[in-house]
Structures are given as structure tokens and as C-alpha cells.
């Protein structure tokens, strides 16, 4: 009796304490973002439709997530971020429906029973840790939901006394003081602003987060509406939590107002809204194809952010339109996503992105995932490939900490180097464009054998250290790695050896028929990107 109890308990305790992860431990991770209500139904529940426009619960739970972790881990993700877990408003339906998303928190000291029990959440956490994965939880501390701006009732809230809140005022956007003291939400769903300068609030929030992180084995926090709380709140709060903190500082392509929220006097990390805006404006089709802005955001980020390698990179989330609502062309998504995985930062994929969901903004971008049958789509396979490559370099080298460097930037192309990986991205989309090519100066010697990891074709560095991407079969991303550095990655076979001598084209190597490498010609060698597009077209 004693043994059968103590062993699992010890293991659990170990798993939890071993996990509570710092910024350093998150840098190399890859995150899959989940809205718990929409990711997976528990096995006990019959499959049902989910009409996003109804803005109500569709039945996803923590057990549903736990029972469907293979789908996430098989795609190479090493962490998940789940929507808020704490108790929400439970009254009558509002003008914006019910709080299926979990952001209408009332009492952070309780769990949201809609998504399961404390044991269910602990089981999810333990299962993740058993898989070597981390758990990031979304938290809301800026505000609580009430039903009135004039006579709010706080009796169901964590802070029950009106003195712990700022009096109602509507936010004047752009005015920091107002953004931090006035109320989020509106008259229909008032979100009362907690007075986070009150010492009792600071103390009680600190004790709460410390306890919750321990209790559920949480490894990181995603902090909702972080800029609506005074900056000086966060170092103390996150210190108590003892885990990585990534804040939501909503914004556009302007780097300054976002960058000031990262650092020792603020947060470990913020979501990379400037790069999101830049990628959207550079790669969406139709779109402004604004590579200048991408270049600008990159340069500004390098100067202004404390550590770009910790930023949360994304092209979709629950507050912005799905990529495919802005841009139908699949290559536009693959190119933009490649930036998120191969440049500085922690890649985040919003559930459903891998299924090419295409809903517009809230609530249409919160589709249920189960109707997709968790299919092994081209996008899913592409993400798997990017994760596999990134995980390999993260695990075996200092890659995650290395600095991204731009190699070339032109109206249709953008190439950058991070560690020994060159990514060449284009915004021309799927149609072939024989006239377009992107020449990139590499740091590698002429004749160095490279592998384009996306297609498993072999390239060779040409004269003057150049490579040249051509798009006669359409604008697919190119990701080049010196072939000898791929050894052991499980990518593109073990040895990459075959070079077709005709016309400078390269073919994928069949691992079963590995031949000894042919002598590489010294003649400048240009591999057509198009040589092997089976995978992406
Ligand atoms: C590109 O972005 C820059 C910086 O935001 C802006 O000034 C410029 O007008 C944009 N160009 C196009 C073509 O949209
Ligand atoms: C964008 O989203 C809206 C609402 O979800 C939908 O009606 C529309 O068809 C979507 N557009 C595309 C291109 O998918
Ligand atoms: C998805 O399909 C690809 C190509 O057929 C296959 O290699 C891969 O193993 C599949 N992944 C999963 C998780 O089934
Ligand atoms: C890298 O590390 C992660 C997390 O420990 C692990 O899940 C993954 O299998 C590793 N990948 C490689 C390619 O070694």
C-alpha cells in the first residue's frame, strides 16, 4: 500500500519540480497554442458540431487535450499553451455569448469546471512532462468580469472589495495611464480593472501564482493584456511564479512600444506582434508585398528588444484573422511560417493553422478542430519538418541563441542566416515565375554541399559563395543547411550524396539506394528550387 502510493507521488513531484522552466529552457521550444474548448472532445463525448457564430461552449476539455497529445507531439512541438484555466463568469449569456474562451475570469483561485477537474489538469501536466513537453498556461490578472459598470458586484471574485478595483472609466486608447487604470471590455461585458498597484493585490496575486504554478506543474505563463498592468508589477509577480513569462502586448509593426515590455524591469518575453504585422504585410496574397517593412521591423527588433530569441513568433492567434482568411495561397503561409521557425524566437502555431482553417477574426477564428479529423495535411507535414529541423539544431547546438542575420532583401525575396541554416523566402505565391530568382551570398566556401531540407534536394555553393533560388515551379520556401551538418538529424536520409549532372538540377536522395557522392563540379552550380516539389505542391 505504502509503496504503490509513494512511487507515483514521488515521480509526479519530480516531474513537476524538474519542469518549472526558465526563459533559457523555453528559448528552444516550439509551442502549439490551444483554446481548450475547441481543441478536442474527451473520448467519452460523442462528436458534435461547433458553430463558432453561437459563441458558446463546444465541449473541449483538458482530458480531450491529454487524449490527443500525439497529434501535437508527432508534429514536433515541445510545448503547449492552453487558454485560461480559472473560474469565469457563470451567469446568463451575454451579448458576446458565453466564456468558452476562458478570458472572462472572476476568481483566479478556482479552476474553470467547464474544462475538467483539478485532477484532470494535473494529469494533463504530468502526461506532458512524461513526454518531455512543457505546459504554458494563459492567465488574466488585469481584470475580472462583472455585469455592471455602475454597480459592480464583486462577491464572486477573487478580490471581493470594491477598493481593490479602479472605478469605472472607458479606456482612451493610446493613453498609457488610461490603458492601465480604465476598464477593458465595454458596457455589455464590463471587465473591471484590478488595482494592481495596491500592495495587498500585489501580495495576494503573488501568493496565488506561486501556489498555482506548483500545484499544477505549470512551466510558463502567457499573460493576457500585459500592457494594461503597470510594468513594475511583472518582475515581482513573475519572480513569485518562478517560471517563464510571455506577455501579450498587442500592437502593430512599430517595434518601440512593444519592445519596452521585455527586460529585467518588465517581462521575459512578449508575443511578437511587430513581426506578425510585418510577415502579414510582406507575404499575404493579395497584399502590399511590403518587404521594406519586414526589413525595418527586423532591424528595429535587433536594436530595441532585449532578446529577440525569446519572442513568441506567430502568424495566427485567437485575436487576429486566420492566415488563410487574409491570404488563400498555401505558399504564402509556408513562407511566412518558415520565418517563425528559422529566425530568432519561439515558434507558436495556433491550433487549426496546420489544417488551413480560414475563419476571420473573433469568433470565426476559434473553429473546433475535431471536424478536421486531425488529418495529416500538407501544412501539418510542413510544420513537422520545420520542428524536426529546429529541434535537431536546438538539441545538438547553441542554435537557438545564435543571432539571425539578413543576407538579402528584395521586393520578392528575403534570405537570412541563423547558425548554419539559410532560409530563402518569397512572396510570389504558388504560380511558377520562371523570371524570378533570388541570389544569396552564403558564408560558405564555393562547392560546399548543401541540402535544401524542404525538398531533400542537394545544392552546391557556386562561385563567389553564391546560391540562387529559382521559381520555375512556384514560390516555395528554401531552407539550406551544409549537408555534413545534417548528419544524425533523421532528415533527408543519413547521407545526402547524389548530384544529377544534367543541367545543374538536383534530385532527392532515396535513402535505400544511397550511393557514394559523385565528385562535385567546380563550375558554379545552381540548383533549381523546383527540382523536387512533390512535397509542397
Ligand atoms: C511599407 O511599410 C512602410 C513602413 O510601415 C510604409 O511606410 C510603406 O508605405 C509601406 N509600403 C507599401 C507599399 O505598403
Ligand atoms: C474569411 O472569414 C469569413 C468568416 O469566417 C468567411 O465568411 C470568409 O469566407 C473567409 N474568407 C476566406 C478567404 O476564407
Ligand atoms: C504524415 O504523412 C507523411 C507522408 O505520408 C508521413 O511520412 C508521416 O509519417 C505522417 N505523419 C503522421 C503523424 O501520420
Ligand atoms: C529535442 O528535445 C526535445 C525536448 O527534450 C525532444 O522531445 C526531441 O525529441 C529532441 N529532438 C531531437 C531531434 O533530438
From TrEMBL:
Q: Where is this site: Transition state stabilizer?
A: 319
Stated EC number for the protein is: 3.2.1.1
Q: Does the keyword Transport apply?
A: no
Single GO BP term: carbohydrate catabolic process
Disulfide bond entries? 50-58, 169-182, 456-492
Among InterPro entries, the record links this protein to: A-amylase-like (IPR013777), A_amylase_C_dom (IPR015340), GH (IPR017853), GH13_cat_dom (IPR006047), Glyco_hydro_b (IPR013780)
**Names of the cofactor(s):** Ca(2+)
Enzyme class label = hydrolase
Keyword set for this entry? Calcium, Carbohydrate metabolism, Disulfide bond, Glycoprotein, Glycosidase, Hydrolase, Metal-binding, Signal
- UniProt entry tagged with the keyword Ribosomal protein: no
Q: Indicate the family of this protein.
A: Belongs to the glycosyl hydrolase 13 family.
Q: What is this protein called?
A: alpha-amylase
Amino acid at each position: 500500500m505504502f509503496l504503490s502510493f509513494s512511487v507515483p507521488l514521488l515521480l509526479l513531484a519530480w516531474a513537476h519540480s524538474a519542469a518549472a522552466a526558465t526563459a533559457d529552457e523555453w528559448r528552444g521550444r516550439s509551442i502549439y497554442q490551444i483554446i481548450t474548448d475547441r481543441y478536442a472532445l474527451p473520448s467519452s463525448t460523442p462528436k458534435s458540431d461547433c458553430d463558432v457564430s453561437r459563441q458558446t461552449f463546444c465541449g473541449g476539455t483538458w482530458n480531450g487535450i491529454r487524449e490527443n497529445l500525439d497529434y501535437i507531439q508527432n508534429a514536433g512541438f515541445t510545448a503547449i499553451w492552453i487558454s485560461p484555466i480559472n473560474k469565469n463568469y457563470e451567469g446568463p449569456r451575454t451579448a458576446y455569448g458565453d466564456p468558452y474562451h476562458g478570458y472572462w475570469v472572476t476568481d483566479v483561485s478556482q479552476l474553470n469546471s467547464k474544462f475538467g477537474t483539478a485532477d484532470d489538469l494535473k494529469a494533463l501536466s504530468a502526461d506532458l512532462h512524461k513526454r518531455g513537453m512543457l505546459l504554458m498556461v494563459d492567465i488574466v490578472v488585469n481584470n475580472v468580469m462583472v455585469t455592471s459598470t455602475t454597480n459592480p458586484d464583486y462577491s464572486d471574485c477573487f478580490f471581493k472589495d470594491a477598493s481593490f478595483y479602479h472605478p469605472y472609466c472607458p479606456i482612451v486608447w493610446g493613453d498609457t495611464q488610461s490603458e492601465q487604470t480604465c476598464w477593458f471590455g465595454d458596457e455589455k461585458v464590463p471587465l473591471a480593472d484590478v488595482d494592481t498597484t495596491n500592495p495587498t493585490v500585489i501580495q495576494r496575486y503573488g501568493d496565488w501564482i506561486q501556489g498555482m504554478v506548483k500545484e499544477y506543474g505549470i512551466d510558463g505563463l502567457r499573460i493576457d493584456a500585459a500592457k494594461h498592468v503597470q510594468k513594475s508589477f511583472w518582475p515581482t509577480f513573475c519572480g513569485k511564479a518562478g517560471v517563464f513569462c510571455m506577455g501579450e502586448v498587442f500592437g502593430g509593426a512599430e517595434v518601440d512600444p512593444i519592445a519596452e515590455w521585455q527586460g529585467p524591469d518588465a517581462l521575459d518575453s512578449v508575443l511578437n506582434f511587430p513581426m506578425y504585422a510585418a510577415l502579414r504585410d510582406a507575404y499575404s496574397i493579395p497584399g502590399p508585398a511590403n518587404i521594406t517593412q519586414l526589413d525595418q521591423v527586423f532591424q528595429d527588433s535587433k536594436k530595441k528588444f532585449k532578446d529577440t530569441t525569446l519572442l513568441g513568433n506567430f502568424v495566427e492567434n485567437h485575436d487576429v484573422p486566420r492566415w488563410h482568411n487574409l491570404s488563400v495561397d498555401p505558399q504564402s503561409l509556408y513562407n511566412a511560417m518558415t520565418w517563425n521557425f528559422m529566425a530568432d524566437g519561439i515558434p507558436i502555431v495556433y491550433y487549426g493553422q496546420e489544417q488551413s482553417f480560414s475563419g476571420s477574426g473573433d469568433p470565426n477564428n476559434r473553429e473546433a478542430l475535431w471536424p478536421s479529423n486531425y488529418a495529416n495535411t500538407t501544412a501539418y507535414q510542413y510544420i513537422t519538418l520545420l520542428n524536426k529541423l529546429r529541434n535537431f539544431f536546438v538539441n545538438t547546438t547553441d542554435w537557438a541563441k545564435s543571432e539571425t542575420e539578413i543576407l538579402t532583401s528584395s521586393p520578392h525575396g528575403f534570405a537570412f542566416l541563423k547558425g548554419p541554416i539559410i532560409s530563402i523566402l518569397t512572396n510570389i505565391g504558388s504560380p511558377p515565375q520562371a523570371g524570378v530568382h533570388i541570389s544569396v551570398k552564403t558564408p560558405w566556401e564555393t562547392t560546399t554541399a548543401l541540402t535544401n531540407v524542404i525538398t531533400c534536394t542537394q545544392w552546391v555553393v557556386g562561385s563567389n559563395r553564391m546560391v540562387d533560388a529559382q521559381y520555375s515551379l512556384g514560390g516555395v520556401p528554401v531552407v539550406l543547411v551544409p549537408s555534413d551538418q545534417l548528419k544524425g538529424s533523421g532528415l533527408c536520409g543519413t547521407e545526402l550524396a547524389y548530384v544529377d549532372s544534367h543541367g545543374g538540377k538536383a534530385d532527392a536522395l532515396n535513402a535505400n539506394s544511397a550511393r557514394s557522392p559523385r565528385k562535385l563540379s567546380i563550375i558554379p552550380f545552381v540548383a533549381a528550387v523546383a527540382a523536387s516539389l512533390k512535397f509542397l505542391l
